[in-house]
Design goal:
There is one protein chain. The chain contains 10 helices and 9 strands. It is an alpha+beta fold. The strands form 3 sheets. The protein has a 5-stranded antiparallel β-sheet, covered by helices on one side. Strand 3 and strand 4 form a beta hairpin.
Length: 278
């Protein structure tokens, strides 16, 4: 979760695939759901905008009537989904004293709905198994879950919006971003450091493989996305809300942030300024 504000000029926002949907609620504006992405999506956020953001983990219940597959690579207004609670929730958020307080109102509402919404436990287990820290073939994951590959794919498309192979590619990409944005020390092949070491740690075959996948999913090269210095994103944003869940899925002994072992368990992240995530 995050708070984003823009200054006196419009802000060019590049949304990246995360494996999940996002809810964007500009204060005084129209709330929108951004479905799971298979590539970059660029939009211009108007000047002097304050926006509340929520990212749903892959497979987490999303407030829509059907599966998130219908939202793949799309952005829709919450009003278009016919939810009668949108106006009431908007009024509660508008009366909050601060944007952070409004974000807490939104969080409490979503948590209540999550308890009553279904979440496929097999997909939840699959997401954990498809994380980049212990690469597995999709067929192996399906066997472990007691599903055929075709059954596995159908369950994944309904709950996540994409097939398991596409989800695995996205999680690997986000794993690389998590390592880079957190300043994690590369622990890859002997003699490999910087971008090469992080590529190996995230499950890529080599730097060329990383470059192809990053360009496919972000539209930029790794250097163009992160800046010239690995471990310090050039945009200057606080990316904790993005990378904490990915590093938390790693074994504690393999997480080395700033040269020290650290098992990251951050629950939420709030930021006033430019966007927390990305």
């Amino acid at each position: 979760m995050w708070v984003q504000t823009t200054g006196t000029t419009p802000y060019l926002q590049r949304h990246l695939p995360t494996g999940g949907a996002e809810l964007h609620w500009p204060l005084g504006g129209e709330p929108r759901l951004l479905g799971p992405l298979t590539g970059p999506r660029v939009e211009v956020i108007p000047a002097s905008t304050t926006l509340l953001g929520v990212r749903f983990q892959p497979g987490a219940p999303v407030p829509i009537p059907g599966g998130v597959g219908d939202l793949l690579d799309r952005q829709v207004a919450l009003d278009d989904l016919g939810h009668r609670w949108v106006d009431r929730l908007g009024e509660a958020i508008a009366t909050a004293v601060t944007p952070r307080a409004g974000l807490l109102v939104l969080q409490e509402f979503l948590l209540r709905r999550t308890w009553t919404a279904g979440r496929d436990p097999l997909v939840r287990a699959a997401v954990r198994m498809l994380m980049p820290w212990a690469p597995r073939e999709v067929g192996v994951v399906a066997d472990h879950l007691g599903l055929s590959v075709s059954q596995f794919r159908r369950r994944c498309v309904w709950a996540v919006g994409t097939g398991p192979k596409s989800l695995q590619r996205t999680l690997r990409f986000q794993g690389f971003l998590a390592l880079a944005q957190s300043g994690t020390t590369a622990a890859g092949r002997r003699g490999a450091d910087g971008m090469v070491g992080l590529a190996v740690d995230a499950g890529y075959a080599d730097q060329a493989h990383l470059s192809r996948e990053v360009r496919r999913l972000s539209g930029l090269t790794p250097t163009g996305l992160l800046g010239a210095e690995v471990g310090r994103c050039s945009c200057g944003h606080d990316h904790t809300a993005s990378y904490a869940p990915f590093l938390a899925a790693r074994s504690p002994e393999r997480v080395h942030v700033g040269g020290h072992a650290d098992h990251v368990t951050v629950r939420d992240s709030f930021k006033t300024g430019k966007r927390v995530a990305r």
